[in-house]
Amino acid sequence: MPRGDDPLLLPPTRCYSRTMSSRANNTAEILEDAMHLPESERRTLALRLLDTVGDEPLEEIERRWVDEARRRSDAVGEGRSQRVPWDEARARIFSRS
Question: Which residues, in sequence order, are CB contacts of 23 under 8 Å at separation 6+?
């Protein structure tokens, strides 16, 4: 359901172009395409996507993020995982296409 006074009812633009549709076979490619949109269109897209996800209470989402952060911190502290610099992690993420 669209939010409030609704900049979300703007007509579809480049984010729904043929180029994106043909490449939309994974999240990384969609994100890469979306990052080339003007800021106002990225905001519109982000809000439209947020409107499609469940209405889980923010407290539950925050609790899960805290649990995940603790789990990851414990894994590093116990030697089960290693830190990776952001530039390296980002390169790994975007090379999975």
Answer: 29, 30, 33
Residues 62 and 45 in one domain: no
- Check whether 13 has a pLDDT greater than 70: no
Q: What are phi and psi of 30, to 5 degrees?
A: -65, -45
> Which range marks the domain in which residue 34 is found?
7-50
Helices (H), the chain: 18-23, 27-34, 39-50, 58-77, 86-94
CB 39 within 8 Å of CB 21: no
N- to C-terminal Cα separation, the chain: 32
DSSP 11: P
pLDDT in tens, 37-47: 999 999 999 99
Contact 9, 2 (CB under 8 A): yes
CB 73 within 8 A of CB 50: no
Q: Looking at the domain assignment, is residue 1 inside a domain?
A: no
